[in-house]
Amino acid sequence: MQDINEAKEKINHQDNNNKNNKNIIDNNLDVNNWGEVERMIGGLDNLISLTSLSTEHKKILLMSEKAIYNCMLEKLSTARL
Hints:
With about 80 residues, the protein is mostly helical. The chain has helices at about 1-15, 35-50, 55-80.
């Protein structure tokens, strides 16, 4: 768990050091906000469809998209309990 928190802090630190990206990652994805989730998935789909991406990069994007869906499903299943 500490490794995950450290990785998250590293992302936040990188974001804070790059003035062009200052406000890009200021909040977590709210899986309860379907509009926000749809925008994120749409953005990933757009990136995945780029022909200039390597297979490895597409795989990473697909895994990210799948992780979002898994998180949403987990959230929905716990809400039903």
